[in-house]
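#dry-run=false #mode=assembly
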Amino acid sequence: MPGDTTLPPRENETSRGSYPVSERNKLRRVHERGRYDREAVHAVLDAAMLCHVAYSIEGEPYCTPTIHWREGDRLYWHGSSASRMLRQLKAGARVCLTVSHLDGLVLARSGFHHSVNYRSAMCFGTARIVDDRHEKEHALETLIERFYPGRARLLRPLEPQEVKATMVIGMEIEEASAKMRAAGVGDDEDDYALPIWAGVIPVRTVVDPLEACSRLLSDVPVPEGLSGFAPG
Amino acid sequence: MPGDTTLPPRENETSRGSYPVSERNKLRRVHERGRYDREAVHAVLDAAMLCHVAYSIEGEPYCTPTIHWREGDRLYWHGSSASRMLRQLKAGARVCLTVSHLDGLVLARSGFHHSVNYRSAMCFGTARIVDDRHEKEHALETLIERFYPGRARLLRPLEPQEVKATMVIGMEIEEASAKMRAAGVGDDEDDYALPIWAGVIPVRTVVDPLEACSRLLSDVPVPEGLSGFAPG
Ligand SMILES: Cc1cc2nc3c(=O)[nH]c(=O)nc-3n(C[C@H](O)[C@H](O)[C@H](O)COP(=O)(O)OP(=O)(O)OC[C@H]3O[C@@H](n4cnc5c(N)ncnc54)[C@H](O)[C@@H]3O)c2cc1C
Ligand SMILES: Cc1cc2nc3c(=O)[nH]c(=O)nc-3n(C[C@H](O)[C@H](O)[C@H](O)COP(=O)(O)OP(=O)(O)OC[C@H]3O[C@@H](n4cnc5c(N)ncnc54)[C@H](O)[C@@H]3O)c2cc1C
Ligand code: HEM
Ligand code: HEM
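#status=ok
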């Protein structure tokens, strides 16, 4: 169905407002850490280099790590046309796609109040195959550009059989939620008087210097901004 | 059922050998990157600070980020006794618990051969509540000690109502697989002659200097080895 794979409205039309709140995505536990607005959900999604996709095969849950990218309200991921996960999703399966960042370890004076600082997003929807060849090639280019802006046009062009061997899945975000903690230690009032070390250990993802391919031609310069993807 | 929550055999008895291979955990795609031995699976699990738990509620998949810990062949995680996820799992739900590390971005001369270096583990089993009070307290202490060896005995002891408010889930790993890529660029032979930059951008998780709680008593020293957990 062409309607299934139409690109979503442009970013500036969809990046506002909040996702609808249902029994599915309504935060109950520590709900004051939750957000339903697109701005918060998209920021968590876009800052991550990988996500985890939950889906079922014959009632059995699977949780597969993969790379994702986003255009407006649509999430994409890709793999082999023969992939079990993707073939399963191609049939239009329900999916929960989750992204998480661990930002710090929180050490309290009691075990109970230990925690972590984090940002996460859970997105619900139905997987759809992107089978229009033009949209598929556009999507794969967007994948490359998300990680390495400007790189797609420098590469050896895609071969038709490469595009054929590749499956791209798109999922319109129907419901979503973000949840985050970014705070210091929250101890019981009486416990602050205890002589126990408490505090936060920040955790970060960093990108190290490039390691050139050993077969790189000697006169090829490193393109600018290659490690431009700053993991957040 | 007490049998459900009995601790698994000691580590040195279970850390050998491989998990059974079934239709569920048999690697098909790029299977040469796969491992089924406990050593490989446990190393991936233990090096991670968080996991993603996939489960279903009324046929709908969910993917929840959480902290996990392991003893032998058993995985644990925890939260509120009122948590929707944990109440659902308490009933003995099927779970896929996945851990992933992104170790590097791989830039090839064609879009098709772009990849990432990674280590991941997928573990399948049935969730069981840990309701024996002694085992539950032991498990919560193990959680603290996993992140901060030696810290449990320095803390204000757990209150009975804190233990009551907490749910601990244990899952015997029935099947598991690890998958990893740790290599340079793999391009089509002809493409090595192209003047396109190719290589690997290593990615790492780092722990930054401690930030003491603003209400820390002035004479409390930082315990040694506090940031001893080296994220791998
Ligand atoms: C790095 C990390 C570590 C964590 N460790 C723990 C832990 O050890 N123990 C623990 O109890 N919790 C932990 N959490 C929080 C955990 O993800 C859940 O928020 C919490 O367990 C409550 O789950 P629930 O299903 O009962 O929540 P509910 O509030 O009942 O969930 C209802 C809905 O709220 C939304 N929601 C819930 N959690 C999240 C989330 N994290 N991100 C975005 N939307 C969400 C979803 O739409 C979900 O369907 C951690 C989170 C992160 C990111
Ligand atoms: C950080 C990261 C990013 C990734 N990005 C992509 C991507 O963009 N595209 C892509 O196609 N793949 C990606 N992968 C690999 C992905 O997780 C799957 O291995 C792959 O998609 C094949 O899925 P499948 O269900 O078809 O595999 P199958 O081989 O059919 O899966 C069968 C069984 O093999 C085992 N298995 C499969 N994958 C893994 C795994 N990753 N770890 C442990 N056990 C596993 C499980 O037990 C699974 O049930 C990524 C992995 C990681 C860790
Ligand atoms: C290193 C030790 C620990 C860490 C890193 C840790 C981390 C966390 C995190 C990240 C959450 C989720 C909070 C949220 O939803 O935003 C949580 C919830 C919870 N933890 Fe822990 N925890 C630790 C130890 C403990 C211990 C020892 C207990 C009990 C004695 C405990 C009891 C709870 C409870 C009850 C919740 C649920 C809170 C709620 O949903 O209202 N935790 N923990
Ligand atoms: C920045 C760009 C890209 C990244 C980071 C990336 C990353 C990955 C990763 C990590 C895998 C999993 C490999 C494994 O299972 O171990 C994968 C699989 C795959 N990718 Fe990509 N990819 C990118 C671009 C592309 C493009 C442009 C195409 C197609 C033209 C493509 C086609 C495929 C195919 C077909 C597979 C499945 C391999 C198999 O299962 O046999 N990828 N990709």
